[in-house]
Amino acid sequence: GAVVSQHPSWVICKSGTSVKIECRSLDFQATTMFWYRQFPKQSLMLMATSNEGSKATYEQGVEKDKFLINHASLTLSTLTVTSAHPEDSSFYICSARGGLPSTDTQYFGPGTRLTVL
Amino acid sequence: QKEVEQNSGPLSVPEGAIASLNCTYSDRGSQSFFWYRQYSGKSPELIMSIYSNGDKEDGRFTAQLNKASQYVSLLIRDSQPSDSATYLCAVEFMDSSYKLIFGSGTRLLVRP
């Protein structure tokens, strides 16, 4: 149980384009989904928290107009990086909370590696 | 500022030995603690969760929690080369919703 998928697993795009990343909880309904970013040799940094049907809550320093989050259902959240630039190149990981066997545990997706040229 | 501190390592142990990973946290109100393992280039996977003071064992892994000292540890018995990874300590706190703060991770190397 508690499987989270992400798509795509990697993406390369040109500077100025927008990229959408999907996060799905496959076998449970996630009450909350989270988006993290991880730069090489650094730990995970929480970008935003989203609950189904509500606006996402962004962490300090994260531009909400650049990183658009939509949490359309209890199993799907999307992150859109708008007008991506090389400094946005990173490993983006989503997690979902609310699944069995432990409903208060965050289960992570496999991550999406974004490279902006 | 809520913080989670870990020694970055690397911690190098021989195969078959016990690896001991430590973590301290700043928020006294935290009630839930997690250890995740992250292989290079991969996302974190849950190893253990612990909520009460004392020890919690799961196979070769034992998590230890001391809330008075704000200290969490993970012991890995009979370490295997496949255990070589970065181990992330995570502490949950309540903001507008439940969130995790991660430590910077301890890199473990198990020598064959």
Please provide a written account of the structure:
The complex is a heterodimer of chains A (about 120) and B (about 110). Helix content of chain A is about 0%, strand content about 50%. By secondary structure, chain A is mainly β. In chain A, strand 7 and strand 8 form a beta hairpin. Chain A is globular and about 40 Å long. Chain A starts with a strand and ends with a strand. The model of chain A has no long low-confidence stretch (mean pLDDT about 90). Chain B contains no helices and 11 strands. Chain B has strands at about 5, 10-15, 20-25, 30-40, 45-50, 55-60, 60-65, 70-75, 85-95, 100, 105-110. In chain B, the strands form 2 sheets. In chain B, strands 2, 4, 5, 9, 10 and 11 form a 6-stranded mixed sheet that branches. In chain B, strands 1-3-8-7-6 form a 5-stranded antiparallel sheet, with no helix packed on it. The termini of chain B are far apart. The model of chain B has no long low-confidence stretch (mean pLDDT about 95). At the A-B interface, strand 5 and strand 10 of A face strand 4, strand 5, strand 9 and strand 10 of B.
How many strands, which pairing sense, and closed or not: the largest β-sheet of chain A?
7 strands, mixed
Query: How many E strands of chain B?
Result: 11
Assign a percent range to the helix content of chain B: under 10%
Overall SS class of chain A: mainly beta
Supply Rg of chain A.
13 Å
How would you classify the quaternary structure?
A: heterodimer
Terminal Cα span of chain B: 40 Å
The biggest beta sheet of chain B reads: 6 strands, mixed
On the 0 to 100 scale, the average pLDDT of chain A is: 91
Q: What are the low-pLDDT stretches of chain B, counting only 5+ consecutive residues below 50?
A: none
